[in-house]
Design a protein that fits this description.
The complex is a heterodimer of chains A (274) and B (271). With 274 residues, chain A is an all-alpha fold. Chain A has 2 domains: 47 residues; 218 residues, Orthogonal Bundle (MetI-like fold), CATH 1.10.3720.10. Chain A is built from 11 helices and no strands. Chain B has a 10-stranded mixed β-sheet with strand order 5-4-1-2-10-9-3-8-7-6, with helices on both faces. The model of chain B has no long low-confidence stretch (mean pLDDT 91). Classes of the chains: A mainly alpha (274), B alpha/beta (271). Chains A and B meet through helix 8 and helix 9 of A and strand 6 of B. The complex binds adenosine-5'-triphosphate (ATP) and magnesium ion.
Chain lengths: 274, 271
């Protein structure tokens, strides 16, 4: 593709829905920031606990070169990565086993429906008692919470495989391994991919929660420390950083989903002949 | 006939779905044989159990009674030398795989080596006139092209028996005629035995060496009709032959269960 500057390209870009959406999104964000800033200036919000947004952002920009921010981000991301990976492996393997075995499915669905609604944070006291206040506790809580969306998605995906595709594989005497890896699992990806995106967000939330509540090192702990020290601008800077991390991870997974599901009717662009 | 076993033999085949009051007695009893390299079409009224019969022939479903053998061996699952082309090509092809990967999938188990496998893929795509489509995805192709990919996948598998279940029923008349001729050409080139299920009587008579006409449920074989039309067949000239009209009328009467006077009565009421 060339980056031609043909007259008209620009106009088409301006009218494209993607561009318009982006523009509207940016406008909304700027408006919210402006309202917050203005509220502090006119005294609607107390300056002490709600410093000006511009000051928070300046604080964050000032920290961009400092090790403190990146160490905190690193700790949070480390917890996120370990728990997300663990949750994915556990959930997909378990989901394959449960989803492909009617007996196992019947035996476990009640257990899953009982365990799944337990809010992970309710386990914090128990986890602190057993695993302490470090990385282990954080990873346990986040893994526990992030496993469910992927597990449930995998089970549903495994049970909703296209029967004709399965029959085709069977008619060619495909080996069970080939059928599982090349027919059943890809067919379940439309379920699993959104499950992974939810799991990623869940893992991040639980990591930050664990840092906030039990003081494991990371962004959550930095927020508490800043708040306890009365450094509210710093506190807001860390909160904004946490939010940005969440947005970035979500974007990453949206892109990944798009890539994995190129073949799926929901993602297919024009190019099909019907 | 020599005394060697027929390519396919169906003996006393019956199928009942479910049991108790909800049981569906789909196939009562079916017997027939298919010789090596023969082209047999199975026709019958809608819902008479053609798909059921084909699934039993393919070893994808077990019969309630009777048995199917291939070269004298009783089959329990789809035998090595058999490939199936399903009616629903868009579901039978794997949309997450390119055309080449779709064709390669059944070959994985055979461990042919890369060069041999590539050759098979290339040859089969050329055979169905899709030499350039290897890198594309099934959903980027038209319906007729997709079914040709499914046929190429079956050919690359190097089967001796090809089972096809109403493979062209979802296609428009033009594409359908093209694919019928393609099927005849491939049968000639590969010498493969074909069992072709259809509810289209014209199609059956045009393609087959023999037509097996089925009764409505519970299904039996009504008649086996030899189609002695000359080959190679041609969509225009073959269908203009008086013999074609005669055979077509005969099969039509068999499938519709009309006695000899009935068609005249039907014509009278229609006008
Ligand atoms: N899984 C099943 N369970 C119960 N009944 C079934 C099942 N599959 C098919 N049948 C019944 O068996 C009979 C034969 O079905 P089959 O699909 O083999 O017919 P067909 O000749 O292929 O029909 P068509 O012309 O519509 O393709 C039908 O009455 C159908 O309702
Ligand atoms: Mg059918």
């Amino acid at each position: 593709m060339s980056t031609s500057i043909i007259p008209g390209t620009r106009r088409r870009l301006l009218r494209s829905p993607k561009f318009t959406d982006g523009l509207l999104g940016a406008a909304g964000l700027v408006t919210v920031l402006a309202v917050l800033e203005f509220s502090t200036i006119v005294g609607l919000l107390p300056e002490k606990t709600f410093p000006r947004v511009s000051a928070d952002l300046r604080e964050l920009a000032g920290m961009a070169g400092a090790a403190e921010l990146w160490t905190a981000v690193g700790h949070t991301l480390q917890g996120w990565a370990i728990s997300f990976a663990l949750a994915t492996v556990i959930a997909v393997l378990l989901g394959i086993a449960v989803g492909s075995n009617a007996v196992l499915y019947a035996a476990t669905s009640a257990v899953i429906e009982f365990l799944r609604p337990i809010p992970s944070v309710a386990l914090i006291p128990l986890v602190v008692l057993v695993l302490g206040t470090g990385l282990q506790s954080k990873v346990f809580l986040a893994t526990f919470a992030a496993t469910w969306p992927v597990l449930v998605a995998t089970i549903y995906g495994m049970r909703d495989v296209e029967p004709v595709a399965l029959e085709t594989a069977r008619s060619f005497r495909a080996r069970p391994r080939d059928t599982l890896l090349s027919v059943v699992l890809p067919g379940a990806v439309p379920y699993i991919a959104p499950g992974l995106r939810v799991a990623s967000t869940t893992a991040l939330i639980l990591c930050v929660t664990a840092e906030l509540v039990i003081g494991a090192p990371g962004l959550g702990q930095s927020i508490t420390v800043a708040q306890a020290g009365g450094q509210y601008q710093l506190m807001y800077a860390f909160i904004i950083a946490t939010g940005l991390l969440g947005v970035l991870l979500n974007l990453l997974f949206v892109a990944l989903e798009k890539r994995l599901l190129r073949w799926h009717p929901s993602q297919r662009s024009q190019g099909g002949v019907q | 006939m020599t005394d060697e076993a027929p390519m396919l033999e169906v003996r006393g085949l019956g199928k009942t779905y479910g049991d108790g009051p909800q049981a569906v007695h789909a196939i009562d009893e079916i017997n027939f044989t298919v010789a090596r390299s023969e082209f047999v079409c199975v026709v019958g009224p809608s819902g008479c159990g053609k798909t059921t019969l084909l699934r039993c022939l393919a070893g994808l479903m077990s019969a309630s009674t009777g048995q199917v053998s291939i070269e004298g061996r009783r089959l329990d699952r789809t035998p090595e030398e058999m490939a199936i082309v399903f009616q629903d090509y868009s579901r039978s092809l794997f949309p997450w795989m390119s055309v080449e990967q779709n064709i390669a999938f059944p070959l994985r188990r055979k461990r042919l080596g890369r060069a041999k496998q590539q050759q098979l893929i290339k040859d089969s795509l050329e055979a169905v006139n899709l030499a350039d489509a290897g890198r594309r995805y099934p959903w980027q192709l038209s319906g007729g092209m997709q079914q040709r990919v499914a046929i190429a996948r079956a050919l690359a598998y190097e089967p001796q028996v090809l089972l096809m279940d109403e493979p062209f029923a979802a296609l428009d008349a033009q594409t359908r005629a093209d694919l019928e001729d393609l099927t005849l050409k491939l049968r000639h080139e590969y010498g493969v035995t074909v069992v072709f299920v259809t509810h289209d009587i014209d199609e059956a008579v045009y393609l087959a060496d023999r037509v097996i006409a089925l009764t409505p449920r519970p299904t039996r074989v009504r008649e086996v009709i030899d189609i002695d039309l000359p080959r190679p067949r041609n969509q225009l000239t073959t269908k203009e032959l008086p013999d074609f009209a005669r055979l077509r009328g005969h099969v039509y009467r068999q499938v519709r269960q009309l006695d000899d006077g009935a068609d005249q009565r039907e014509a009278a009421t229609a006008s």
